[in-house]
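Hi V.,

Quick status before I head out on leave. The structure for the redesign project is tokenized and pasted below; the design run finished overnight.
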């Protein structure tokens, strides 16, 4: 086959592949199949189109690092050639060798930065609600941890102001704490239900065995989480919620059967 025929064949193949890719691209059912390899191969080009204009528009900060890179490349090249001469060998090291070595070094640094970004994004995705553990223990553990922090915050608030806040929203503003600390996602719908403050605005410090806050019913576990006046947090059966709201002490609930 002549060189002209070979060139014509490759042109025809390129046109056909371009047509196939175009057809797949306009087809909504095959968009994902085409987007993945295209972004993988040409993603750097799309990124360069977005990133280069702002960088080139503010080129002055790049002068110093580029100058240092050129100087370091020249020093490395001179050092290698000097070491060859010092050992009695002819200076066979060329400029292209130094440029290749420095390029590989920069490529390794870029790969390390990219790898750290991949790890960061992977960790972020694993914390997404679609991937997190949704078992019974997870909701109960989250409620216990939040209750401990809320009880400590209520103690600090009472010590500072001489009374408990009128609502947990007031405590949220005082502590500047994240809103997720004051509620627990419960049920299959994962709706956030708030804790209940049992002594809003009270000036008397609650007794060690007296309940201070109570969580919503954790439906998956059939329990509630209660924070007491001594700072302890415990889990009780959901049927004890009414007795907790009435302020019955911990030992009274544990010793007597639920009504």
């Amino acid at each position: 086959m002549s060189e002209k025929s070979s060139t014509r064949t490759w042109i025809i193949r390129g046109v056909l592949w371009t047509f196939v890719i175009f057809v797949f691209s306009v087809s909504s059912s095959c968009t994902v199949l085409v987007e993945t390899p295209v972004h993988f191969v040409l993603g750097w080009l799309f990124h360069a189109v977005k990133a280069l204009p702002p960088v080139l528009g503010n080129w002055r900060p790049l002068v110093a690092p580029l100058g240092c890179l050129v100087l370091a490349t020249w020093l490395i090249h001179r050092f290698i050639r000097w070491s060859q001469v010092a050992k009695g060998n002819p200076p066979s090291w060329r400029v292209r060798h130094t440029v290749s070595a420095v390029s590989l070094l920069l490529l390794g640094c870029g790969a390390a930065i990219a790898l750290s970004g991949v790890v960061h994004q992977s960790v972020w995705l694993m914390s997404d609600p679609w991937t997190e553990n949704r078992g019974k223990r997870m909701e109960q553990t989250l409620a216990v941890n939040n209750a401990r922090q809320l009880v400590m915050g209520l103690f600090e608030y009472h010590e500072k102001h001489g009374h408990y806040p009128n609502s947990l929203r007031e405590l949220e503003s005082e502590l500047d704490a994240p809103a997720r600390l004051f509620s627990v996602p419960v049920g299959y719908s994962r709706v956030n239900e708030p804790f209940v403050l049992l002594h809003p605005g009270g000036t008397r410090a609650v007794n060690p065995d007296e309940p201070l806050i109570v969580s919503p019913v954790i439906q998956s576990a059939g329990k509630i989480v209660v924070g007491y006046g001594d700072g302890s947090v415990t889990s009780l059966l959901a049927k004890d919620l009414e007795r907790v709201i009435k302020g019955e002490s911990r030992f009274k609930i544990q010793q007597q059967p639920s009504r």
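Above is the designed sequence. The chain has three domains: 1-39, 63-132, 136-255.

G. will cover questions while I'm gone.

Best,
W.
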